[in-house]
Write a structure and sequence with these properties.
Number of strands: 0
CATH superfamily: Tetracycline Repressor, domain 2
Largest sheet: none
CATH topology: Tetracycline Repressor, domain 2
Radius of gyration: 18 Å
Number of helices: 9
CATH architecture: Orthogonal Bundle
Strand content: under 5%
Distance between the termini: 55 Å
């Protein structure tokens, strides 16, 4: 009798990738050590190669998972939003204090974007695919979805949001961090028109 339930190995693999996705958003790609990752996942270091051919393989899966989790989180918020308020919901959630304070749970682009160019091609490919999906998510919230030029507006809005979050997190001045995010929210809304 066939079953769709994941095997123990699949569950363990998923736990490792989930833990790695959180860790790379919190500590960066170079901050991910295999031994500490496996310990955090409740496993021994030796079990790593039963699941991954290399650290690059793990990082590619973690980049994909981190991107997917960020998109899924915004997707859940948008599903609960009124259609007319969806873009405002997305902008407010992205630029929120909660997102600022929890890079390990939020958008992988804002947490890792500056590190991606120094990663191996499989990692860059996974990150790029998720960036494109994020731009598509933004575009679907724009008035007149699929209207000519909306793809460019979506890219501008996404760039504004990501850049603002990077600057806000880099600053040690809470007032400046807030001002950056407020200005970005205003500009992102104007770009949608």
């Amino acid at each position: 009798m066939a079953t769709d339930s994941p095997t123990r190995k699949e569950e363990t693999h998923d736990r490792i990738v989930r833990t790695a996705a959180r860790a790379i958003r919190q500590h960066g790609y170079d901050g991910l050590g295999v031994a500490s990752l496996m310990k955090e996942a409740g496993l021994t270091h030796g079990g790593f190669y039963a699941h991954f051919g290399s650290k690059t393989d793990l990082l590619a899966e973690a980049a994909d998972r981190a991107g997917a989790e960020g998109i899924e989180g915004l997707g859940r918020l948008l599903a609960a939003a009124q259609p007319a308020a969806a873009l405002d919901t997305l902008i407010d959630a992205y630029l929120s204090d909660a997102h600022l304070a929890a890079p390990e749970q939020g958008c992988a682009i804002a947490a890792l974007g500056s590190e991606v160019p120094r990663q191996a091609e499989p990692v860059r490919r996974a990150a790029t695919q998720r960036m494109k999906e994020m731009a598509d998510l933004v575009e679907r919230q724009l008035p007149g979805w699929r209207r000519p030029g909306n793809d460019e507006r979506a890219l501008a809005i996404l760039s504004c949001l990501v850049g603002a979050m990077v600057i806000a997190r880099a600053s040690d001045d809470p007032a400046f961090s807030t001002a950056v995010r407020q200005a970005a929210g205003k500009l992102a809304r104007q770009a949608a028109l």
